[in-house]
TrEMBL record:
Species of provenance: Leifsonia tongyongensis
Biological process (GO), any one: carbohydrate metabolic process
GO function terms (MF aspect): carbohydrate derivative binding; glutamine-fructose-6-phosphate transaminase (isomerizing) activity
CDD domains from the UniProt entry: GFAT, SIS_GlmS_GlmD_1, SIS_GlmS_GlmD_2
PROSITE patterns per record: GATASE_TYPE_2, SIS
A GO CC annotation given for this chain: cytosol
Subunit structure as annotated in this protein's UniProt entry: Homodimer.
Superkingdom of this protein's organism: Bacteria
Reactions that this protein is recorded to catalyse: D-fructose 6-phosphate + L-glutamine = D-glucosamine 6-phosphate + L-glutamate
Keywords of the record: Aminotransferase, Cytoplasm, Glutamine amidotransferase, Repeat, Transferase
Protein name: Glutamine--fructose-6-phosphate aminotransferase [isomerizing]
């Protein structure tokens, strides 16, 4: 949620800010604004509710000039509705200082009462304006933006990233963060700040992640990082693994269409350099030591939304291969139920952005309780990996569409690799069996490419069903979380009622939902994996078909037992049972995307959703 850009350098601040905000649109927002200090040393702001295009059109009519110092923001409304006056930046020190903010300041009401009692006035309903007015007051007292920041952040409670500039200090932008992301971009004669590297990757791939409770000051030629007490902090630069072209559509109709097409590469890249001679070895886990992994007695996977469904798929493989109990928990429920955690508990967090606030808080809780924490993440320099004992990076590349697709299959791949790594460490799979499972995983990218060839026929099916008001999804074993993920995609993209069920639950209540014409997607397991389970799912299909359901089956190529009972069959290549989810999810992603398109909806930026949920 919220996109933040800061810039100091040459006389092109507005260009840099608007370009950065454009690349951060995927995070989700409802208003946008900028503040710059022009060449005469005057501060100018512009902000508008609505899409970034509303702001850029307004700037053409009402230009604010340019300059070498600026900050920009896309806002997701929390305190106060999405209006012009609630949009960022907010001003302090009689309009001489501008502030942008990501997060929630939990004690803003008490601070606002204090400032009102002192005679300060407010023009918005936001918590951010309280920080701006407070910062302006402290600037008057100290005459230094850095010193004012240290005084202000010590009084703020909650999660925040703050950026500010003051017209008396041109060429300086100061930022601070607590439980909210902030990254530095290192340039030549210019420096950048951003809520993630997409804000500045067009200009530099050299970056530094800001740590918890730290303040950064950038000028064109320097970067200084301190803690909240003012003590200097040493930082470690890293190189962004992708460039700006990777976050562009490249001729595709949507970012989601492009990202679905990239799923074979996402799996292959996540596997790369993590296996040798038929065994999986994940270099990032070597620092933990094999003795730590060998000594764990249970695993808890924590995640939200799509990542949680990836965790559920992965849990089947990890438990089967490594013979250790695995449970999957929603991050936002985990720490509130007083879970039993011991030093032998391994917690695996999953977050595409590495900034999901619910998951971050759960990670901190788990570490404080003594657990070892490994994160699965797609974003370099993110907060959750830095708060973990080790990280397995997926290499899906930037995912711009709000609804996750290629990150999902990359997360499952990372969990499968971890399961094989853990099985090797614990000695629970023979060497030939490890090699066999690895060969199955290595074959997935080519099979994914084969599934993608069905895109046009699935798109046609979606067009025929454009007026559908509700869709049900059924699956068993690893097909169950895929059914839930298919339902989630349809909710996110097409705004219609969709539910995923374990197929065995049908007779326990959900079958009451079946009526003539009700579309039901069924993820059919391979008979080669479990003939009994396959027969049970075919029986489920017969049950709902007898009550008038329209059945769309996702089944392996050549599964003749399904054909007499399904209205439509979407074939997927043959794969071992544990690997079928990677193939079965693709048709469901395509269907949701194409149904959304058929309804004329925004596939990449669904209503009310943000790519990275950075508030609880």
């Amino acid at each position: 949620m919220c996109g933040i850009v800061g810039y100091v350098g040459t006389d092109r601040s507005l260009e840099v800010l608007l370009g950065g905000l454009k690349r951060l649109e995927y995070r989700g927002y409802d208003s946008a604004g900028v503040a710059i200090i022009d060449d005469n040393g005057d501060l100018h702001t512009a902000k508008r509710a609505g899409k970034l295009s509303v702001l850029t059109d307004d700037l053409k009519v009402n230009p604010i000039g340019n300059g070498s110092t600026g900050i920009g923001h896309t806002r997701w409304a929390t305190h106060g509705g999405p209006t012009d006056r609630n949009a960022h930046p907010h001003l302090g020190d009689d309009g001489r200082l501008a502030v942008i903010h990501n997060g929630i300041i939990e004690n803003f009401a008490a601070l606002k009462d204090e400032l009102l009692a002192e005679g300060f006035a407010f023009t918005s309903e936001t918590d951010t304006e309280v920080a701006a007015v407070l910062l302006g007051r402290e600037y008057r007292a100290t005459g230094s933006l850095q010193d004012a920041f240290r005084l202000v952040v010590s009084r703020l409670e909650g999660a925040f990233t703050l950026l500010a500039l003051h017209q008396d200090e041109p060429g300086v932008v100061v930022g601070a963060r607590r439980n909210s992301p902030l990254v530095i971009g290192l340039g030549e004669g210019e420096n950048f700040l951003g809520s993630d590297v997409a804000a500045f990757v067009e200009h530099t791939r050299n970056a530094v992640a800001i740590g918890q409770d730290q303040i950064v000051t950038i000028t064109p030629d320097s970067v200084t990082v301190t803690d909240f007490d003012g003590e200097r902090v040493e930082v470690e630069p890293f190189e962004v693994a992708w460039d700006a072209s990777a976050s562009e559509k490249g001729g595709w109709s949507s970012f989601m269409a492009k990202e679905i097409s990239e799923e074979p590469d996402a799996v292959a890249n996540t596997m790369r350099a993590r296996h040798h001679d038929g065994q999986v070895v994940i270099p990032e886990l070597e620092a933990l030591g094999d003795d730590v992994l060998a000594g764990i007695d249970r695993i808890t996977i924590i995640a939200c939304g799509t990542a949680a469904y990836a965790g559920q798929v992965g849990s089947y493989a990890i438990e089967q291969w490594a013979r250790v109990p695995v449970q999957v928990e929603l991050s936002h429920e985990f720490r509130y139920r007083d879970p039993v955690i011991t030093p032998k508990t391994l917690v695996i967090s999953i977050s595409q952005s590495g900034e999901t606030m619910d998951t971050l808080m759960a990670v901190k809780f788990a570490r404080e309780a003594g657990a070892t924490v490994i994160s699965v993440c797609n974003t370099q320099g993110a907060t959750i990996p830095r708060e973990s004992d080790a990280v397995i990076y997926t290499h899906a590349g930037p995912e711009v569409a709000v609804a996750s697709t290629k990150a999902f299959v990359a997360q499952i791949t990372a969990l499968y690799l971890f399961g094989l790594h853990l099985a090797r460490v614990r000695g629970t799979l023979s060497v030939p069996e490890q090699a066999r499972q690895l060969d199955e995983l290595a074959a997935i990218p080519a099979k994914l490419s084969k599934v993608l060839e069905s895109h046009d026929s699935i798109a046609q099916l979606a067009k025929w069903m454009a007026d559908t008001r509700a869709v049900l999804f059924l699956g068993r074993h690893v097909g169950f979380p895929i059914a839930m993920e298919g339902a989630l995609k349809l909710k996110e993209l097409a705004y219609i009622h969709a539910e995923g069920f374990a197929a065995g639950e049908l007779k326990h209540g959900p079958i009451a939902l079946i009526e003539p014409g009700q579309p039901v997607f069924v993820v059919v397991p391979s008979p080669r994996g479990s003939d009994e389970m396959h027969k049970k799912v075919v029986s489920n299909i017969q049950e709902i078909r007898a009550r008038g359901a329209r059945v769309i089956a996702i089944a392996e190529q050549g599964d003749a037992a399904v054909l007499p009972f399904a209205d439509e069959v979407i074939p997927i290549p043959l794969a071992a049972p544990l690997f079928e989810p990677l193939l079965a999810v693709i048709p469901l992603q395509i269907f949701a995307m194409e149904l959304s398109s058929a309804k004329g909806l925004d596939v990449d930026q669904p209503r009310n959703l943000a790519k990275s949920v950075t508030v609880e």
